[in-house]
Specification:
The protein is an alpha/beta fold. It has a single domain (7-168), classed as 3-Layer(aba) Sandwich (Rossmann fold). 41% of the residues lie in helices and 15% in strands. Strands 3-2-1-4-5-6 form a six-stranded parallel beta sheet, with helices on both faces. Strand 1 (7-13), helix 1 and strand 2 (37-42) form a beta-alpha-beta unit. Helix 2 packs antiparallel against helix 9 and helix 4 (89-99) packs parallel to helix 6. The longest helix has 15 residues, at 142-156. The chain starts with 6 loop residues before the first strand and ends in a 6-residue tail after the last helix. The structure holds adenosine-5'-triphosphate and magnesium ion (MG). Adenosine-5'-triphosphate binds next to helix 1, strand 4, helix 5 and helix 8.
Length: 205
Amino acid sequence: MRSCSKKIGIMGGTFNPIHYGHLMIAEDARCFCNLDEVIFIPSGNSYMKETDDILSGELRFHMVKLAISSNEYFICSDIEIKRTGNSYTYETLEELRKHYPEAELYFILGADNLFTIEKWKCSERIFKECSLIAASRGEVEFDSLKKQADSLKENYQANVILLPERKMDISSTEIRECILNNQSVRYMMPEEVYDYIFERKLYSN
Ligand code: ATP
Ligand code: MG
């Protein structure tokens, strides 16, 4: 019998700012896993990042909305930026689970995070609630990504899906640094986001 539960991708991130790397892995995940929708969730306070150069949740949320507006499968949620205190992914997933009791949840992440997720707070509750869809990134060899996926499967019974290899060498850190140094960041993100950043003189101190 065909299951008719909805398949929902969850794309968490600081999105400081959102760029084509984020959009590309979300779209790859949607297509590869036949997801019905992808929810972008900008982080609230991150306990793992220096907070000095992180723009307010409202600004990051607005840029995400601009970036995804042309994709009918993408939506954006403010559940993390509305929450006071630290952002914990397991809490977000458990909250989403209440809204979508029957859905299959898929947490989308880049290779860098596949190597740190074990250390995230209550990571076993993340693995219990959803499958992971991991994208290649940076220097990480596909073989070592596969080994890491296998180890998460073995140690935590995590369901890990690897996307076909594609590398988009863009990071928000690079974008922030380029803006500070007056270097071009055009074409690293949708034009709407680019215009918004420069109209508001974001990231330029
Ligand atoms: P920063 O440099 O500030 O950490 P970032 O570019 O890593 O920013 P995040 O908001 O930290 O962006 O990332 C959100 C998610 O998107 C993470 O799971 C991250 O691994 C993934 N991601 C970001 N950029 C890429 C990319 N170019 N290729 C693959 N995955 C990416
Ligand atoms: Mg990052």
